[in-house]
User: Which sequence fits this backbone?
C-alpha cells in the first residue's frame, strides 16, 4: 500500500522500526477520470519490518495516523474484507525475498477508531498459538464515497511457515475485555520451491463493469469457481474497478471476492483503472520496499517463477514517470529474469503477468501505441530469458498467441495470453492475425465471463480457459471450456 496523491507528508507518530525514504509536502487533488494518473506529489515511502519475518515492506505513503497495534476499539471494530497477499523482498539474490511457501500477508478493514491489529495463526483451527502484531493506517474519503472519516486498513504478516501446509488464522484482537476477531480462515501455503507435486493456480482480470454500479455478478461467479477449483493462487491481471479513487466500487469488488480472498493468495499487476492510487495499494498486499513498491515483484510458487509488473506509468504512459519507475523496473526485470532462467533445474517455468498486452488482435486503433509501448519495454527481455507464458488483460476478450520469439512464430518461445473477461465490456477483434492461435469473446450483459485454471508440474504446464455460460452453475464443471493448451519442457 502506498502512493497517496492528495495529502502531504506523513505527520503522525512512526513505529520505531519504520524508516522514511523520502518526502514531499506538495498536495494534489483526487483524480477526476479513470485515466488521469501520475504521482504528482512525489514519492513518500515509509517501510516497516513485519514481526518475525526478516524482511521490510513499504507500508505507507503520506497517510495520517499510521499506527502499531493498540488496544483501541471503535464502534464498528469487526474485521471486514479479510484478504490474503504476499510480503517480502523483490531481490531473489537476497535474504527476505518473497516466499509464498513460508509466509503470507493479510489485510482487513475497520472503522478508523479501531487500532487493534493482531494476527494469530496455527496448524489447527483450535490452536492459533502464534500471535503477531500488525500495523494500520487510515485511507481518507475521496469523491464523497465511503465513510466520511475514512477507513482504517490493517496489515499483518505470518512468517516461518512450513511449505505446503494448511494454516488457520484469525485477525483482529481484544481490548477492554471485548474480542473483535474475524472468523477462523485457512489457506494452504505454496509447496516447497521446485517441488514435484502439481500446483494449481487461476488467472483472471478486468472485473470492473461499464458504469461501476453493478454488484459485479461475473466476477462473483469467477471467484466462486476459482474457490471450487482448489487453486491456491489467484493471478489478477488488473483493472479491478472502474475508478480507483471510488471506495464504493472497491466495496463492491471486495464483496464479490471476499469468499475467495480470505483463503487464496491473490497477486495482482495493476491496471490503468487502478490509477496507482492509495486505495488500490490499500486493497492488495504485494512485496517490495522501494518508492515503487507493490508495482513489481516475483516469487517462486512450486515449479513456477511468477513475475508481476505494473506496466502503466513509466511504460504505457512514460511521460508521467516521476518516480523513475521505468528505469527501476526494467533493471530489476532484467536481473530477475536472468536469475530465473538460470534456475530452471529447480524452478522450470517462468510466467510473467502484467496488464497491457504485448501482442493481440484488438480492433481499437488507439491501442496500437499502447502495444508498442509494452512491446518495446518488455519483449527483448522476455525473448532473451525465454519466458514461457505471459498473462495480460486490458483488451476485453481472450486471446492466445502462437509460440513466438523475436516477433515471429517459433518452435520455442513465449505463449502470450490475454484473459480479460472478468465482467468488463466486451471488445472486438480483427481477423487473420498470423500470430494469433485462439480468440474467444464473451457477453457480460448475459453474465458471461472468462477465467483460466492452470496446473504446473516439473515438465508440463496445463491450461484450460473457461467461459461462464450465464447466470447458471457454481463450478468450472458448469462452464464451457473454450481453450486448452499444454506447454512442455
Ligand atoms: Fe480493462
Ligand atoms: Fe485496462
Assistant:
Amino acid at each position: 500500500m502506498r502512493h497517496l496523491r492528495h495529502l502531504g507528508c506523513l505527520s503522525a507518530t512512526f513505529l520505531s522500526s519504520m524508516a522514511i525514504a523520502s518526502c514531499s509536502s506538495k498536495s494534489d487533488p483526487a483524480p477526476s477520470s479513470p485515466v488521469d494518473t501520475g504521482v504528482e506529489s512525489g514519492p513518500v515511502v515509509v517501510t516497516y519490518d513485519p514481526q518475525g519475518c526478516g524482511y521490510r515492506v513499504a507500508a505507507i505513503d503520506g497517510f495520517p495516523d499510521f499506527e502499531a497495534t493498540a488496544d483501541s476499539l471503535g464502534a464498528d471494530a469487526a474485521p471486514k474484507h479479510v484478504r490474503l497477499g504476499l510480503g517480502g523482498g523483490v531481490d531473489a539474490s537476497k535474504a527476505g525475498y518473497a516466499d509464498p511457501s513460508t509466509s503470507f500477508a493479510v489485510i482487513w478493514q475497520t472503522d478508523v477508531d479501531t487500532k487493534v491489529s493482531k494476527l494469530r495463526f496455527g496448524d489447527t483451527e483450535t490452536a492459533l498459538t502464534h500471535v503477531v502484531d500488525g500495523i494500520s493506517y487510515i485511507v481518507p474519503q475521496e469523491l464523497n464515497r465511503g465513510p466520511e472519516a475514512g477507513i482504517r486498513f490493517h496489515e499483518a504478516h505470518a512468517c516461518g511457515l512450513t511449505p505446503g501446509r494448511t494454516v488457520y488464522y484469525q485477525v483482529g484482537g481484544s481490548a477492554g475485555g471485548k474480542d473483535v476477531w474475524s472468523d477462523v480462515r485457512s489457506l494452504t501455503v505454496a509447496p516447497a520451491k521446485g517441488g514435484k507435486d502439481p500446483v494449481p493456480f487461476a488467472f483472471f482480470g478486468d472485473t470492473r463493469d461499464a458504469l461501476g454500479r453493478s454488484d459485479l455478478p461475473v466476477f462473483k461467479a469467477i471467484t466462486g469457481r476459482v474457490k471450487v477449483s482448489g487453486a491456491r493462487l489467484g493471478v489478477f491481471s488488473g483493472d479491478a474497478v472502474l475508478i480507483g479513487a471510488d471506495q464504493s466500487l472497491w466495496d463492491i469488488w471486495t464483496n464479490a471476492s471476499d469468499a475467495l480472498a480470505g483463503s487464496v493468495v491473490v497477486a495482482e499487476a495493476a491496471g490503468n483503472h487502478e490509477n496507482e492510487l492509495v486505495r488500490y495499494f490499500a486493497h492488495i498486499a504485494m512485496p517490495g520496499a522501494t518508492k515503487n513498491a507493490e508495482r513489481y515483484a516475483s516469487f517462486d510458487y512450486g515449479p513456477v517463477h511468477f513475475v508481476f509488473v505494473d506496466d502503466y506509468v513509466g511504460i504505457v504512459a512514460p511521460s508521467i514517470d516521476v518516480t523513475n519507475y521505468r528505469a527501476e523496473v526494467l533493471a530489476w526485470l532484467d536481473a530477475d529474469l536472468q536469475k530465473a532462467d538460470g534456475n530452471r533445474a529447480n524452478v522450470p517455468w517462468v510466467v510473467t503477468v502484467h496488464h497491457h498486452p504485448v501482442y493481440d488482435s484488438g480492433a481499437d486503433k488507439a491501442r496500437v501505441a499502447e502495444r508498442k509501448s509494452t512491446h518495446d519495454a518488455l519483449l527483448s527481455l522476455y525473448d532473451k530469458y525465454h519466458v514461457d507464458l505471459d498473462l495480460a488483460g486490458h483488451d476485453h476478450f481472450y486471446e492466445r498467441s502462437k509460440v513466438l520469439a523475436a516477433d515471429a512464430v517459433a518452435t520455442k518461445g513465449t505463449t502470450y495470453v490475454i484473459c480479460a473477461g472478468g465482467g468488463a465490456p466486451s471488445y472486438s477483434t480483427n481477423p487473420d492475425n498470423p500470430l494469433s492461435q485462439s480468440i474467444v469473446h464473451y457477453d457480460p450483459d448475459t453474465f458471461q465471463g472468462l477465467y483460466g485454471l492452470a496446473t504446473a508440474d516439473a515438465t508440463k504446464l496445463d491450461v484450460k480457459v473457461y467461459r461462464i455460460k450465464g447466470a447458471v452453475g457454481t463450478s468450472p464443471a458448469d462452464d464451457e471450456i473454450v481453450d486448452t493448451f499444454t506447454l512442455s519442457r
Notes: Residues 325-341 form the longest helix (17 residues). The pocket of fe (ii) ion (ligand 1) is lined by residues 206, 239, 271, 394, 396, 420, 424 (CB under 6 Å).
